[in-house]
Amino acid sequence: MDKIFRSSWFIKVISFLIALMLYNMVSSNNQLSHNDINPFTPSTSTKQTVTEKLNVIFDQDKYVVTGAPETVNLLLEGSIGQITKTRLITTKEAYIDLTGKKPGTYKAKVLYRGFPSNLKITPDPQSVTVTIMKKITKTFPVSVDFIHKNELPEGYKVGEPKINPETVTVIGGEEFVDRIAFVKGVVDLKGIDSSFSARMTLHAYDEDGNQVNVATNPTVASVQVPILSPSKDVPVTVKTTGNLPNGLALADIDIDPETVTVYGKKSVLDAIDHIGDIELPLGGIDKSQTVELKVPVPDGAEKVEPRKIKVKVTISQKAKRTLKDVPISVNMPAGQNKKVKFIDPESRTIDVVLTGAKNVIEKIQQSDIKLSIDVGNASSGDVELPIQVIGPDNVTMRLEKNTVTVHIENAKND
Known about the structure:
single chain
């Protein structure tokens, strides 16, 4: 037996058998790799299109770029497994590189990076046309545009809005910024019936109202919008109370403003024609000065603006002056035909003593004072009637006598 194992032909046979076994094993593995249908084994090549954001590389401190699309499509060719893995990569990107480019219009090739090297990638589009412009900044005032203003309740209107900030910085290409006429936001008044606050997005517009492609800083502004109820402007009058110290007289009263605005329902406003009897106490006034008086709110009204008025009070030394022989007129209702004869004073005139500021009473003439009697309800015969006096403000008028005696006859109709 030992001789058989040691013979050369036996060793050759065994070597041949071993070589044959190894050949069969390799052949079997190759056949398995070609025919195996395991889904995890890479399959044949396929195509898929993905959309990627297009990044633009340029000197952002000096320029702005327009014309570049937001995204581009990339056609990927490779195995399903490779494409699936590619979708999970976060560092991949599509881009155009404008590094070193000056202002002008360029056709830039769409590039990509961060994708597996064994994928075939075709951008769509393969190039884009962009314009590089010099970057500038400019400050503009902010305005607000109201929509649905006609839907406010009847009589209501928009007051002066307060915008914060009042100005914004616009950043963009020189050609675009030069086209800007105004920057504004839009506020909707639909369903509004009282004052409110809002935030509005800001946009720049050219003189034709077309939006200009620039950036604003900030992009949003806040606005306080007063909604005013129906209003009416009415005059105000001042009534003095008390007396000035001895030797002083009231020369003039000047009211600022002379009218105020009353707010409220229309039915309430229709019944208001003035605000009177705003009291001005004279007791503590010993020299010319300006005082503030509170304006009362009429019954039923919502408010009055302004809430206070300024009254300029001019004081001077008190003086007296007598106007001689001021005529007395007769007031007779229409349709009456009475004969009136003055008995006392027979001259139908009377002296009037004026007391007030010297510079005021020196300017008063007879025509500035109206004296009259009313005979409408007087009976026939001799009657005594009171004298009615109308004269300048801030002047005390004392009559020589306060009544007259007249003889009245009812004239007969022809």
